[in-house]
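anyone seen this seq b4? input:
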Amino acid sequence: MKSQRAAWFVLICANLALWGMLGFYRTTEASPREPQMPFANSIAQRNEMIEQLKAINAQLQEQNELLKSGRLKVVVNEAKK
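predicted toks r here
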């Protein structure tokens, strides 16, 4: 009877120890991380700025075409005080 009780005690302790150790394990830290550069990537920043400038240029061209077409009508109402 005592040997069976001792076996269960050892089994429960082993399970608790195993689950305790697995509680410290994190999968996100186990995977390799991308190397971080000490400075910002100037080439990527420059490419992003060029893309944004192209988008702004396209919007300005659309606005200029609308203004030149004569289809634009501006109505001004004075605000009452």
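The two ends are 97 Å apart (CA to CA). The mean pLDDT is 84. kinda curious what u guys think
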